[in-house]
Amino acid sequence: MYNGWKILLGLIIFLAVATFPFYSNIGKATVKPEPKIDTPVINELKEKKCVESKEFMKAEHMQLLNDWRDSAVRDGNRIYVAQDGEKYTISLQNTCMKCHSNKKEFCDKCHNYAGAKPYCWDCHIAPKEAKK
Amino acid sequence: MAKLPTPDELSKINYKPPEKRWVNTPAEFKDGFWCFGTRPKYLQAVDMPNPREWKPIEDDWKLPENWKEIFLEGFAERLKKYRSFRLFMDICVRCGACADKCHFFLGTGDPKNMPVLRAELLRSVYRNYFTTSGKLLGKLAGAREITFDVLRELWYYAFQCTECRRCSVFCPYGIDTAEITIICRELLNLLGLNTDWTMGPVANCYRTGNHLGLEPHTIKSIIESMVEDIETITGIKIEPTFNRKGAEILFITPSGDLFGDPGTYTCMGYMMLFHELGLNYTWSTLAAEGGNFGLFTSNEMAKKLAYKIYAEAKRLKVKWILGGECGHMWRVWNQYLETWHGPTDFLETPVSPITGTKFDYTSSLKAVHIAEFTADLIKHGKLNLNPSRNDYLKVTFHDSCNTARGMGIFEEPRHIIRNVCNHFYEMPENTIREQTFCCGSGSGLNAGENMELRMRGGFPRANAVKHVHKHYGINMLANICAIDRAALKPLMDYWVPGVEVCGVHELVGNALVMKGEKERTTTLRSEPLPEKEAKENV
Amino acid sequence: MGALFSFVMVILLVLLAYAGIKAANLQIFFGVVIPYAAILTFLLGFVYRMLKWSTSPVPFRIPTTCGQQKSLPWVKQNKIENPSTALGATVRMILEVFLFRSLFRNTKAELRDGRLGYGSSKWLWLGSLAFHVSFFTISFRHLRLFLQPVPSPVHFVETLDGFLQIGAPTFLITGSILLLAALFLLLRRFLLPTIRYISLPADYFPLFLIIAIASTGILMRYFLKIDVVSVKELTMGLVSLNPMIPEKIDVIFYIHLFLISVLLAYFPFSKLMHMGGVFLSPTRNLSNNNRMVRHINPWNYPVKARTYEEYEDEFREKMKNAGIPVEKE
Question: What chain B residue is nearest to C75 in terms of C-alpha separation?
């Protein structure tokens, strides 16, 4: 082996970087986030349903919120007609957060886990939550 | 010999490759493109393998029975010896940046002259025998067996590369086709497949110390005839010494400077300069050759031929070595010489006896390039120069590939030229300094039988000269390389008639006002000085 | 033909993963076994190749000098393009590795009416730099799937990447740049006759593979909107060595993962090793201090050369007659 220490040093750096996710996680149990829907408002609902189906909301809520923003802010339209025909007021704070008043236990759970950082709260005021 | 096409015909070049894939296209040997095979006597003279009469154009190359084995064993050995080789076989991504950087591709349009493809010729063989993917996937992985057709192709194209390294400047990984060509030629030499034009000088050089085969007394008489010419021109008699022990400096220059114009004028320039300085130097009749055609043969041969340099310096008890204007000599000195034959503890770090400048940057090699030496003299105002004697010249400077990309000597010769000439113009920037174009005849290709190849290979260089010839009236192409001086002359006659070729120290010799000289009426070429002529005619 | 073959290969790989999940329910195979095998092949293969190169010495110091050498004190040296110190060579390497210095020099030669001209040609440089930088950025962003909690540099890079603030999930520009740059590199190989002539299947295959990887990634994020939480469960399982297969991850994810695995496993056996190789290139990583420091060749061996004694023996009489001094009278 020639220029051994330089090449070995390079390889050690390479391996340290490439395997970083492994050794920094080894033995750690991963906990899948469970967003909570046990707010008082939701608990009082007779029929526990969101504006759209759970599956739709899971995959498309970001798109829906984006559309809502455009619709309300740019077009002045504050009525959303859901797929089942029901009408909702387009409002993050008054519609979404009315039920999901627990941002930390609901939104942030998955967002933090997946490393998603939506910029909703750059403009909107986050709901004040009671400390547990 | 093949008839040379006219420049007009030759400059119509088609760069579009054919439809048929290159692997399925065996090399077609075109007249005027290849050099004669080496004669057996040259190989015998230096104990190289497989000496026999052979003709590259014929189908029987009289190879040894086990030639494939020899070739592949040599291949394996060199992969172990050279990281450059193994790496350059492995990491090319075929981005094609090198393609139109090669003067041979630009001059021939032959796709196998793209550096990437020239290397692929050998890489395909490498893949077949030395890589897992090649062994498993064969053709799919771009691998191919070594067959006689492949060998012919390797030979044909290994001698269409001048090892100039221009492609290496542009390669994102610094892949140097020169390294690949050098090793490819080594492999070919294991089978006795060199060219006569390379091998002759090698054999000569081994016996007499110089490529031309000049014996010691001949060297002396050649130099003495130059001394007479100098006396005729300047009225000054200079007295060079040969094999003199105890001189301060050993002067070594390529033997091309001793034989044939315009090299001899450069040599006269050196000697006039040394005389004017009163330099305590000597010639060695054995080390009367800095050039090294061994470099175009094999590492071992180059090393053998370079042995005399330090050996003579030691024997003659000089303090340091001064090297003349030569391209590949300086590449060899800069990259190989001391690794081969060092350390040089019997020499001293060179110091200019005139200016006192200590050449620290060569404290280990202990050899100074004459352009560095002279530039230092001029900078210190030690020379009485009359640049107007060169006023009839409009000069441009050709950077030699070897000193440009194997060393990096750019400013020193330019500083000299600016001080000895009043009319100096640069060629376009993509054709000078590290991007300089080869003369087309380097690395042992300056034979006669491959003249079309040489004119094609020199096309990009000639084209740049033509540009400055047209715009500034350039009539002199200066350089610091003996092969350039020999090769650029026919190149200019072919492409840009009216442009002469000279070494930088010929210009120095012309401008140098020597103590006690008579009024000069001619140049070093013994041609009347134009202004003097004009005055006399009044 | 090389292109078609490579294209078909990549399509087959996609179909293989699709069928494996949809028809054979091989989630564990494609989600755990293959990724582990690929990572192991990549790491061991990469190290092996580097060590293999390291076993060949650098017998001679052969930097390609692209600027003025160090010589007389008043001559301005180009300390980077013709370095005489380790520092200079290091800077040269940094410029080469991170900014593709040599490629930046690229020119295009054109022959018109017997005259050669050289135009600046930066497209290849731009395309490959865009390709590599976006590839690196995307890989770095993916750390969000392998680390918990997600470190702030990863968020920072993603914020930069999404600076356009278009749509939700936020449009990340590097994904598209990677795809476009890879398509550019591919189109070069199709459209430029000389480049097409030199291209091998080994040149097309990684491009098609990377295009497929980028496309499936873009599909997942913006169009099919797969369940990232479940994906992260799987990826965290892999890196914490507690592999598990969450329910209901769309097949597109398995295709994406499989293609990446193929890329990783293919890496050490291919030209992609230029990633490690570039650091070892003797024409770039050495300083041109040959005349100051003797370079040692570990296999330097003595050769039989012509000595002065032999020379004098042959020419003694001629030398004496010519008045050239000799050792033995």
Answer: B411
